[in-house]
């Protein structure tokens, strides 16, 4: 048996349901809070009171790292999911079940518990605040999601066992999924693997699908990268290409197949916003979603592109920057540069679009041919110039000087004509692959709550 790990807030029934499941599967039941008390010889309120929450989290991390790898049902403390190291340990070769419960039921269940408060707020407000703060972590932790609000622990255990046995997608959804992929352009080995994952009855009901939604999508490096990461972290998921001219069809299929997440690419980053249940604040401000996380029956849209631009530029905080382009990626880049307190001027072939993006993001804008008057510290290319079919550099050789940092967001080829020219002039250069790496790292965190080192992603992309 694979390990079953129960996550969720206090009062969602993890301990009672965990005991029932362990007895039914004839395996040991482990509760991380009880293990902490046994190992330290102190109660959790005492640890919080005497040593503080940080010390408690360190002990909890050690206990989770030492859990047995199989044949156990494990109940975790409500805040364990927030730590990405815990998530990497808990996810490995396990089925993670997120238990959810409505606010009233949680309040009722924990009102008389001796557990220490985590904030100075009254109990109900503390629960609402903590649920909100940990929402993304809980969702990322979930392979299965079970609402225990109106159920007894015994009924919840029946529901969990049923989902573990049969999986979530219905046989007809699986059939529809196979038809969708057979109608596309997937290569034979990729199609065979999907037919295996979507077989009915399934050979492994808990293998979850993720993928890249785009048209075209088959050029994406996502499947190679994410499937390698799943193997590395012991995650029972498969990442594939969702290629279709209609994003609505992809989203309907994703919901019926209980897909865990989608990376969204051209031309759907704007259109998908109307098809998710919620859009996070950064994505709303940028006006584009490149990541959709499905959990507990709802889909949330995020943008990780801006973080992919921001991370490699952190050391240039406060610089004077020129952003070339005013399209989708330029919007995410403008958001990142402004977030780093840069003085940004947007130059674009169509000046009205530069003006519109500048107004939306608090940047300046100017005509393309004013570049020579600006003397920036940084230039970011967010046009497709440099990749096929137009492989020209967006700047001329004499416009590139040694003090300039050049970040070319184009990543095919990795060394673009602009990067080559900048290297020749002694500039600091950042290749588009760095943006891809950092945005993929953020996506993996949104999907699974795990923080993958950038080096690991770079290794799988090379
Ligand atoms: P987009 O929405 O179509 O915007 C393209 C922008 O480039 C527009 O501002 C457009 O100007 C300008 N442009 C297009 N052709 C041009 C030309 N020949 N000369 C001057 N300007 C031109 O595209 P996008 O989604 O923002 O993507 C832009 C590029 O970013 C892609 O080609 C890709 O290489 C790169 N990208 C990189 C990553 C990564 O992870 N590194 C991720 C996504 C995209 P107009 O307004 O005048 O049309």
Mean pLDDT: 96
The structural class is: alpha/beta
Unreliable segments of 5+ consecutive residues: none
> Largest sheet, if any?
6 strands, mixed
Count of separate DSSP helical elements? 20
How do the strands line up in the largest sheet? 7-6-8-10-11-9
The overall strand count is: 17
The best one-word shape is globular
The N- and C-terminal alpha carbons lie at a distance of 36 Å
Ligands in the model, by name, code or SMILES, are:
NADP nicotinamide-adenine-dinucleotide phosphate
Percent of residues in beta strands: 15-25%
User: Helical residue percent?
Assistant: 40-55%
Rg from alpha-carbon coordinates? 24 Å
Blueprint of the fold:
Layout: E1 3-7, H1 14-25, E2 28-31, H2 32-40, H3 44-51, H4 53-65, E3 72-75, H5 84-91, E4 94-100, H6 103-110, H7 123-141, E5 144-147, H8 153-166, H9 171-182, H10 188-197, E6 208-214, H11 222-233, E7 237-243, H12 247-256, E8 261-264, E9 278-279, H13 281-286, E10 291-295, E11 298-302, H14 305-310, E12 320-324, H15 328-339, E13 343-347, H16 351-361, E14 364-366, H17 371-374, E15 378-381, E16 405-408, H18 417-424, E17 428-430, H19 432-448, H20 454-461
Parallel strand pairs: 1-3, 1-4, 2-3, 4-5, 6-7, 6-8, 9-11, 12-13, 12-15, 13-14, 15-16, 16-17
Antiparallel strand pairs: 8-10, 10-11
The structure holds NADP nicotinamide-adenine-dinucleotide phosphate (NAP).
